[in-house]
Amino acid sequence: MISADELKALIDQTYKVEEEYVALRQSYDHLQSTIEQVVEFLPNAIWILEEDGSIFLQNSKAKELGSLFETLYWDEQDYEVSFQERSYLIKSALHNGKQLFSATDITEQKRKENLATMGQMAAHLSHEIRNPIGSIALLASTLMKRVIEENKPIVGEIQKSLYRIERIIKATLMFSKGVSTQKSTLKWSVIRNDLKNAIGYYSYAKEIDFVFPEDDFELEGDLDLLGMLFTNFIFNAIDAIELDDDHEEGNVEIVYTFEEDFHRFAIYDSGIAIVNEKMLFEAFRSTKEKGNGLGLVLAKNIANAHGGTVELCKSGRKGFIITLR
Known about the structure:
Blueprint: H1 4-41, E1 45-49, E2 55-58, H2 60-64, H3 66-69, E3 78-83, E4 86-95, E5 98-105, H4 107-146, H5 152-177, E6 184-187, H6 188-200, E7 207-211, E8 218-221, H7 223-242, E9 249-259, E10 262-269, H8 295-305, E11 309-312, E12 319-324
Parallel strand pairs: 7-9
Antiparallel strand pairs: 1-2, 1-5, 3-4, 4-5, 6-8, 9-10, 10-12, 11-12
Helix pairs in contact: 4-5, 6-7, 7-8
């Protein structure tokens, strides 16, 4: 028979055990909450599975990629998969009877690696091509002086094609090496004359009216780079007008304003609309059949190197807005 004192001690012991259980449960809940917050904080998708394959824990990114989870392999630890036009690095491990999976989006990393490889290959090819192109250009110039008058337009077309190749080579080398500026005080009239000369070397069949700012003003910048910046947009505008089957004429206009320490140039054209805006500033991807995908990328880099920006005109006329500090 249990005495009163023994019964009291047993009751006290029961309360103590219960208090310890409550404290232990609270500690466990706190630990569980901390783990869930850590898992949620991770930049990749995380799944933790029970032995029967049921999900023990997953973060919100994992929930968004539920369809990807259904394609994972349990018997492979590290591999890459493509899913919905994205690339993912999949890692898996077994710990304390639970299967752990993580999926990291490496699309941007893969894109940069591919661009670096393509840039190196293109730069190598550009170096190899530059010498024979230089020889052909010299021979074409000599031929222009000696050929009969009726054949001069043919030689002129050859020179225009060589000019286009030279631009591609220059753009490719600049993309692979990066934009480096040598700034000085420039007159807009110098840039404008260079643009008019460049247009003369560009082949197009339609009647195109070019309107450039007539006011002469000063700006700080690299003459060669700014020339490439503006000609890239003008040549893109010419190509867009050439592709417009509904009209035999077109116009390209540059409108200049000075706003709060920035030179602002709006370049408008009457050509066809831009097909895919997302591709505009991606290297080696072009919305044009004969484009190399570097023109707008370099234009944006050049503008950035001059403390400015390049943006697509969002309202009103079709075109781009360039700002230069």
